[in-house]
User: Fold these one by one.
Assistant:
Number 1:
Amino acid sequence: MARTLEFDYDTTLDRATRLFWKSGYAGTSLRDLLKEMGIGESSFYNTLKSKKRAYLECLKHYNETVARKRSKVFLEAPTAALGVRALFKNMLESLDNPDTPSVICMMAGSLTHEVLDEAELREYIEGQISTLQDKMIARMNADKRDGLLAAGFEPQLVVPVVSTYMQGLWRMALVSYDRSRFEQQIEVFLTGLGL
Amino acid sequence: MARTLEFDYDTTLDRATRLFWKSGYAGTSLRDLLKEMGIGESSFYNTLKSKKRAYLECLKHYNETVARKRSKVFLEAPTAALGVRALFKNMLESLDNPDTPSVICMMAGSLTHEVLDEAELREYIEGQISTLQDKMIARMNADKRDGLLAAGFEPQLVVPVVSTYMQGLWRMALVSYDRSRFEQQIEVFLTGLGL
DNA sequence: TTCATTATGTATCGAGTGCTACAGATAGTC
DNA sequence: GACTATCTGTAGCACTCGATACATAATGAA
């Protein structure tokens, strides 16, 4: 009934995601984006509606790929404590991997001044963070019942701390990253919390 | 011998600082800046040299005022442990204070993608962070000798963790801030580290 | 006063911004 | 082929960006 899309949407979105991830929202111009995606303005505004919406779409795509793997890494570990450790290990591997677009997680990188003005984006990020936190809390509570975590250990209090600390690590990596130092401080952090 | 400045440099820089602090580097246009400062292009480029240099100058100004008070808050506490607690309290007060330009510390807010491309800025931030960390470590070591901190407590390992966690808190506050929740997780964090 | 020096206001630069209008190309339906 | 519907390339929109050119105004030393 009508003309078909000439480009593959998923591939294109993936490329856009890598660019946004690397340079952030403000640091990525529409021209850069189009060049990377290999499409023209018309195709862009036809599928995605604006730059802002495109960013949100890319962030969702990021979550369904990279971030999804992370939560899988956590959930598939034999215990919650090991799961948290696996999360940090995954983070360090990402930092060491030269193929990673940016030194910072796209979700973490999205927590900027600009976010405050974009309600939809902020709410999405907020939701994603709390969803992951809930998964971690649930898993820890299960471990607690199984006696894998101390009776005094309180997941709903500890998890936000872990989550917040990770945000900090992503940021710190921007200014100076040294694997062994990071491993060292992560160890201090985790043992302090009883993980 | 020559014409004198018609505006007060310090006042003007202070205004610029508050604007940069509030909206970030990319989020602040030169026009906004000039309007807030109450000067023209000529005066701006005569004293500060470029927008980038202006931002760095403002960040330094921020450190000499706001951040300086913070480190004072830490150093003047009776013990290092109380000093760290005072730091977090100061942070919460800043978050609660409606007169604070931004919900995020300007130093923390400067840790963005853009920073990576600006060597001078990055090095400055790096230096400031490690300077504060060194002060904290020194103070803790003194407390340790005085028996105010456990013998097993290792300042050079713990301080980076505290520093990183604070960065994370500033970021988290951007998306959702609740004082009592923050107090709660800070308490969990600190007691875990033995502070 | 003369003069060099610096400060300021105005106008504008060229480049880049996100975005849109519009004509033409491509598809399925009749 | 005619018709409708969607896609795409090109050109350009109105605007903002950071930065600059230049004439003019103020200052103090000679």
Note: The CA atoms of residues 59 and 71 of chain B lie 16 Å apart.
Number 2:
Amino acid sequence: MTVSQTIAGANTELSLHQRIVNEIEGRILSGEWPPGHRLPFELELAEQYGCSRMTVNKAMAQLARTGLIERRKKSGSFVIQPHAQSAVLEISEIKQEVEGLGKTYRYKRASREMRKATSDDRALLDLSASGKVVEVTALHYAGERVFCFEERLINLAAVPEAAEETFADTAPGSWLLQQVPWSAAEHKIKAVAADDDIASALSIPPGSACLVVERRTSMQGTFITHVRLTYLGSSHELVARFTPSQTGQI
Amino acid sequence: MTVSQTIAGANTELSLHQRIVNEIEGRILSGEWPPGHRLPFELELAEQYGCSRMTVNKAMAQLARTGLIERRKKSGSFVIQPHAQSAVLEISEIKQEVEGLGKTYRYKRASREMRKATSDDRALLDLSASGKVVEVTALHYAGERVFCFEERLINLAAVPEAAEETFADTAPGSWLLQQVPWSAAEHKIKAVAADDDIASALSIPPGSACLVVERRTSMQGTFITHVRLTYLGSSHELVARFTPSQTGQI
DNA sequence: CGGCACATTAAGTATATACATATTACCCAG
DNA sequence: CTGGGTAATATGTATATACTTAATGTGCCG
């Protein structure tokens, strides 16, 4: 431990390039360096911090990846104009969500059907050829109350193992996570009035406001599954957060 | 242009460390390297790619930041267990949203009031001391139709300039973007049935399902503004995407 | 046989160096 | 004054090197 480290205090045990990131981020967030402002050149910062250009470069590259600055050769680095607000939406599994509320979770399959893909199915899964699909509908309970109604389509061409699975006891969401570890997903979130089917499934009056989350999961370009989750509207909310520094960590 | 570059084809003009990121990402996404799998050591990868350890390190650091792998000294790097799905929700300004639909955008202020913060206001903005706030309600049109109803609170302690602004012609959202360039935000998304006020503002029958987005924007710990946007439910949907590679880019 | 010092290993950080690339600025010829 | 070629410049990428740090394993000695 050198003397300078002891003096530094709080910021100790942070790498230099991370400290540079933090300080620049602070200046941008505080408005000291407003959008459009040109930050010092790498060599200038290197001199200020008494380090090499490579170290500064590492910091600047990180800031550029998180979208706080834009870098132009020969011109320098500039604070970016805030465009669209983007926020990170954490979509946890329903079981965790329910247990997070302190309720006991229960799963109940309502129906399961295997069939040749209809034109509706093909639209939802972006299928060109006519393959087979499995459709599962299920209920997720929080305590005695229905929490969420699930309607799911699984593309059998992508997940042939789904033909053997009844989903009587396992929720298709967590089952699929075992089969297909990582994927890209596309979500649509909307509010709808409950139709008669949904109303009876959720035991609410027809016409009630419900939050609907539709997710389409793909892997390497082909769609695996499409799911529509219908929540009892007033009792459920999604939370999304935006913090510039963690952008990296989606 | 060397011969090898010409042969490479599609992947040309990608930096080596980015190519390494892509290939490893592919193996993880395809399931070839399942969660928990230990990837080759930096030195092994360096040899495979015929490059230095630094280059591999850059790639691995990026994968670690995006949350695809976890790195442990002396042990190696491991594919991470899939936790919660997180998706990036792009929340653009309403004007852009409307124009993206090919409709003409129009803004109309409904009311504006400056007052000492009530206890409700203080709860929404996390105010401890009793300061002043401005409350603005406004309508956003898409063509002839109301698209969205806005109810906004602005913390005057954080943005004193708001006292002088009437918001008769400028939407508070875009105005605030000028004043407070960068910030963190927290969103809640839910479905509600329109009460009488909302119903008359949006000219829909009371009880209709509406999508509500509530956003609380903070800077350096203090809350700037709270806004509730009420959309005509069935006509509007939010879209969120998850792609592992871009996690960095919020 | 148990515990602790020490060596080993893999990643983390930082540096100097080198060359590539994109873009701007400048200067000179027409 | 204008256009185009060229030099200067800031970032981008890659390398070899060196030292640090944390975790794991090993072996020695009481």
Note: Residues 72 and 129 of chain B are 46 Å apart (CA to CA).
